[in-house]
Amino acid sequence: MNDQDLTPLLKRIADALDRLSPVQRAPTDLSVADAYVWHADGPDTGYLEPVSSVNRMPLGLLHGIDQQADTLIENTRRFANGLPANNALLWGARGTGKSSLVKAAHAEVNAGDENSLLLVEIHREDIQSLPALLATLRNSGRQTILFCDDLSFDNSDSSYKSLKAVLEGGIEGRPDNVVFYATSNRRHLLPRDMMENERSTAINPSESVEEKVSLSDRFGLWLGFHNVSQDTFFEMVQAYCDYFGLNIAPDQIRAEAKEWSVTRGSRSGRVAWQFVQEVAGRLGKRLDLHD
Q1: What's the rounded Cα separation, in Å, for the pair 279 and 276?
Q2: CB 273: neighbour CB atoms within 10 A?
Q3: pTM (two decimals)
Q4: CA 254, 255, 257: angle at the middle one, nearest 5?
Q5: pLDDT range class, residue 79, cuts 50, 70, 90
Q6: Contact criterion met (CB below 8 Å) for 75 and 65
Q7: Which tops the pLDDT comparison, 124 or 74?
Q8: Which of 20, 25, 21, 53 has the alpha carbon at shortest distance from 136?
C-alpha cells in the first residue's frame, strides 16, 4: 500500500478519534454576564453559556408570597455579602412563583451593584456533572447562586447521591462562593413509592429510607408555596394589568379572571399570567418583561 492509498484511511481514523475526544473549549469569561446556563458534555465536562437577558418577573409583581420572598432575599443578600447562608428548597404547587422568586431575588440583590452576584442554572438531567461545574465556579471569584428548576428523582435515578454529596457530605463539599437553590413540587424530592420500595428490600429499612429523606435535609431553608385565595388571585391579575397598562374595568377583569381560573381548576401566579397574556393579546398590547 503506497502513501496515496494510506491518506484517506488515515483521515478517517483521525476523524473518528476527533469524534471520540471531548471538545476542548476555551474557559468561560464569567465577567461578561450576570447569568449563565450550564450545558454538560458528559459527567466530567461542560461549558457555561451566558444569558444576555434573564426571563423573569419584577419582584413587585409576585403577590401572595411576601413571607417567602422576604426570607429568600435576606438569605441571598447575606450570601452576596460573603456571610453564611443556607441552600434553599422552594417546594409546593405548580405555578406558584417558585422559580420566578429565585430569579427575582437575584435581580433584587444585584440591583445597583452589577456583577456582584452570579446566577447559574443547571438542568435536572445534568446533575451528575455537578462536580465539574463546581470546579469551574470554585475559582471564579464571584458569589454564585446555583439554580436547578423542577428538581426531582424517579425510581431508577441514583444521581441524587451526587447531589447529596456535593451539598454537604463530600470531602470538598460546596464551595464557599456557591449556594444551591432548587424548586420542586415535592418536599422530599423523591417519590413515596421509591422510599417504600427501599424500605421493603433493604437490610435495615429505616436507615435506607432515612438516606433518601436526608437529601432534603441538606437544604437548610425550606419555603412552601401553595395555591392562593381568590382575592390574592385578583390582586395578581390587577397588578399585571396596571403594570402593562391594560385598561379594563375592574368588575369585568374580575369576572373574566374568575371564569379563567375555574376552567383551569387552579389559582396561581402562572394561571394569572396566562390570563393576562390572553387579555393583552385580545387588546393588541405587547407585554415586555425584559430589563
Answers
A1: 5
A2: 20
A3: 0.80
A4: 60
A5: very high
A6: no
A7: 74
A8: 25
Q: What amino acid is encoded at 208 in this protein?
A: S
Contacts of 146 (CB under 8 A, 6+ apart): 120, 122, 133, 134, 137, 178, 179, 180, 181
The alpha-helical segments, DSSP class H, found in 86-173 are: 98-110, 130-138, 160-164
| Block residue for cell numbers 444569558 | 51
**DSSP reduced 3-state for 189:** coil
Using the predicted structure, report yes or no on whether residue 158 has a pLDDT greater than 50: yes
Q: Cα–chain-centroid distance for residue 128? A: 16
pLDDT of residue 197: 52
Smallest CA-to-CA distance from 187 within 76, 86, 93, 268 is with 93
Which residue intervals of the chain are DSSP H helices? 3-20, 66-80, 98-110, 130-138, 160-164, 192-201, 205-217, 230-244, 250-264, 269-283
Please say if the pLDDT value at position 213 is more than 60: no
DSSP string over 277-289: HHHHHHHT-----
